[in-house]
Design goal:
This is Bifunctional diguanylate cyclase/phosphodiesterase. It comes from Pseudoxanthomonas japonensis. InterPro entries: Biofilm_reg_signaling, Diguanyl_cyclase/Pdiesterase, EAL_dom, EAL_sf, GAF, GAF-like_dom_sf, GGDEF_dom, Nucleotide_cyclase. The chain is an alpha+beta fold. Helix content is 45%, strand content 23%. Helix 6 runs antiparallel to helix 7, helix 6 packs parallel to helix 11 and helix 20 packs parallel to helix 22. The protein binds ligand C2E and calcium ion (CA) (2 copies). The site of one calcium ion (CA) has 4 residues, from loops.
Length: 727
Amino acid sequence: MPSYVADGEPDVSWVIDHSDNAIVVCDEAARVTWINQGFTRMFGYTPEDALGRRPSDFLAGPHTDPETVEWVRGQLHTQQGYRTELLVYAKNGVPLWISAVVNPVFDPERNVRYLLGVYTDITHSKLHEEMHRKVLSAIVREQPLQEVLTLICREVEKVMPEAVASVIGVDDYGRLRPLASPSLPDQIATLIDGELAGPMVGACGSAAWSGQPVECRDIERDPRWQSHNAPFLALGIRACWSSPVKGNDGRVLGTFALYYWENRAPDEFHLRVADVCLHLCALAMERERERARMHQLSFFDTLTGLPNRALFNSKVEQMLLGAARRDSQVALLFVDIDRFKIVNDTQGHTAGDALLRELAKRLGSELRDGDVVARLAGDEFVLAIPDRTAEEAANLADRLMARLSEPLSAGRMILTPQASVGVAMFPTDGWDVDSLVRHADIAMYRAKSEGGGRIVFYSLEMNQAMQERLALENALREAVRSGQLRLHYQPQVALDDDASLHGVEALLRWRHPEIGEISPATFVPMAEECGLIDELGRWTLEEACTQMADWRRRGVPVPRVSVNLSAINFEQQDLPTFIGNVLGKCGLSPDELMVEVTESVMLAQKPEVLANIDAIHRMGVSLSIDDFGTGYSSLSHLHRLPISELKLDMSFVRDLEHSESARALTTSILRIGESLSLKVVAEGVENAAQRAVLASLNCDLLQGYYVSRPLSPHSLERWVSLQPPTE
Ligand code: C2E
Ligand code: CA
Ligand code: CA
């Protein structure tokens, strides 16, 4: 009869010896009376080692939870079974997570006779679970990367006393950046920091470089360690095993390494632990990368890479605190590029963007450590320069202007950029970032209105002027809405003996209840800046057409009306529809309306502007180029545009009598008109002498005080009625 069968039954203890579980029988005082061989395999204790001792005494170790042990002992008196999970230690010191199920066995008198314990090794799943729980909660709590990785190392070392763990990051330039190695002295991290990853740079350097795990059983002799092993050997480290930590995209983010005190390779357990760690390290490092990217996005301007307003504000706040403590000054420079919009409109956004990037680079090149430069919006830059007097700030601003205005090409143009700079000083002009920026902005605005290309320091008086301007803007808003605006009409007549009426130009008039008449040369640009120009343009078009319709009905012989529109009006997609509707409503034909625009509108590259120009022309409404001769139009451009009239700028007319060059320019403009079959209107003709020169040069049409001032509708009717009848 085989030994594993007793009395026809299997030999139970022989069978139980084959279980993977550790099974233990204790007496009522919890002392071991029997263990199976599974117990010896799991913990290394033989029956001789274990008999007569309490398992909780010899299995507990440094990281065993004392409360759970206490609880287990308390269970003895309850006479009930229990189940628990516990970190214990094998005889050789290796930690193990076990799940213990313990049941009392009663004698016939219902006294506890034995305790039967079944222990299962759950190290792997438990380690997984424990590490995940701790590390993920640290990540969720937004703990710094270094802390999270240190936690991982410590957890590993808890279950693996024979090893030391370390995590190293790899930066964008392939350099090693130690992140966590809580059990190694700091000098080691200092030594490694900044090393370029490579095949001969220890286990971590070569794992980071190759993207493969690297095993070095003997760092003293391993060729990859030759120039690195001394400090490690000095600590007693003999071997190292390093694996690359990879991100979702497969990129090596860093390395996770185990160092050993003896020449050896990782065992099965180490492989499993490392697997969990690599996953967690990748998670933490990816998250950090994402956080850095978000930081970059939320604090930096994507076009130029400069700090944005948020970052500028927080940096300058710090700067001001420091300056207040040191009793020193800070200069705040507000830089705005002159005529940037023209580049953007005529050369396209790509060229505009390239220009901004180049200018940002130039601004940065003149700065010292500690200076801050940011792009606020569009073509607006701000700089904060600590520890400078107003005079030094002026010198710096001079240098910046010189640097900015070096020629460069944008699209098809060679530009010499020019900037307007406003300066506000801390603490004289403001105590906080907001007021300093606002005041520097006001000063910049003044620089701009004085013609640009200059530096202006903020003053209190400027602030008042700005307040007044704001008040005026509000008044204009009110005026547009409450009908304080009117149109006057200035006749344009043929420059022949008949002097027949060609048309009238509608010109805006605004009488402010307190200030009196305000010139459109003042309030039209204001309306453009404060967003009122769209409304204003529509109002003018509708009013002029309504007036024309009225004259038409009453037989007043005004052949057409010219209306001035701004560049911004041409950016409104529905402009042609609007014009069409107004004409329809007033019962006018398209040739009774003419639209005056400046050259820059015509040169615009914006598709919506070009589409509008085209659509208006196709409707039959004529286009006229205002202030011709002052802009950049080239002949080659002109002949492609659907225009029918040029308005010779007043400045030429004014100088006609005395200036040879004004006469020459006028002549050439008239010849351009002739060759393109465009009518030319001379504006601002004030006297007979000017008229005579223009007549000798064959100019078609006259407009100016010599003919008539702009007139109210009523006065214009009178003027018309006093003209000798033509025919
Ligand atoms: P502009 O379109 O060049 O208008 C001609 C300006 O010259 C008018 O000034 C007119 O009153 C003035 N003027 C006419 N004849 C003479 C003259 O013989 N001598 C002198 N020295 N000046 C003369 P105003 O009405 O003050 O308008 C100034 C500017 O305001 C206009 O220049 C135009 O750019 C703008 N503007 C006027 N009305 C409107 C409008 O309805 N919409 C838009 N967008 N702009 C307008
Ligand atoms: Ca005009
Ligand atoms: Ca004009």
